[in-house]
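FIELD: query
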Amino acid sequence: MKIYFDENMPFAKEFFSELCQLNVDGDNVEELVPFSGRTLTAEQVADADVLLVRSITQVNEQLLHLNSKLKFVGSATIGTDHIDLDYLASRKVAFHSAPGCNAVSVAEYVLSALVVLAERYLINLSELTVGIVGGGNTGTRLSEKLQALGIQYKICDPLLAQKQAEASNTDKREYVSLSEILSCDVISLHVPKVVGGEHATNKLLNADNLALLRDDQILISACRGDVIDNHALLALKESGHGLKVVLDVWQGEPNVLEALIPYTEIATAHIAGYSLEGKARGSEMLYQALCQQLSIEPKHKLKKFLPPANIAAVEVNAEFDQILLNQLVKMVYDVRRDDAIFRQQLFTQGFDSLRKNYPVRREFSAVEVTLLYNDHSGVPHRLGFSKKSN
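FIELD: result
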């Protein structure tokens, strides 16, 4: 069995090597082939039995028309807008994605950005209301972290709001309109790209509704670049508007609207979900799905492949406040590192190279926090930091 995988999938060899070993004349021959996701061609994958991709690879008839043996396609990502699902179904090719794999990573990116901006502009985070657009895996993880910190939030998701009417639905959250979200202190976008239809998200934020925003608001986009009309956002900022902008995703990636970069508070190369755990969970989820497809019992779990964090454990001997929050968050992930890399290296290295060579980043769960003070709230642990095991 020949398995092709995106070279940016961590631990792919550890997970998949055993599944693709062939016995040829008594010798085990591994057929596990890495590829560059942006430049993959039909000729390269003409003999693939399994194709494992990330969001930058368009999987459609154009890519697969030379292949007659493909049985499984996996995307180690949350979204599926890069996959022609109807085409795969017409060929009876099994497909699996990895919903929720990097949701925690994106939520922690947003939290790091808020911590940085709070320090930069002397903002009290507890006084903010965060408007979350998209109530799926990522929006939910973000809302859980905000709730742990006592930060007020609202969620807009018309599709989930409609599903609440179903008898089997257990979602009891209250959903609000986009217009109500646009009046929140912080607007954080976590929706897939949807073109057309009742709930389209392509250019969800456009010249008309961007004009409604206040100078003191914060706009964070860590989903898909086309959700914000970048040219309309640039025109708004060039007019002198004080909106604070955090952009991890850009229209036309890997090409970036260069003129917009100086108007951002934080700018990064679509890496919000690029924690080691976030990317590796995608590999693990596809491994489990392929094992199920092959009727094989999975042998591997991600935990045994993850290395210890540089700072694996800390002790906290003071009551939890915003200063302590800032210290803990930045100790694990300070988004200013990735902002500096983006501004300094984008034009010399290129957008895709920044993603391919992204330095290792861990999630809060990689750090064990021991609380030495008499406080039963356990905020760091509810935020995602690990507890010391007994």
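FIELD: remark
The chain is about 30% helix and 15% strand.
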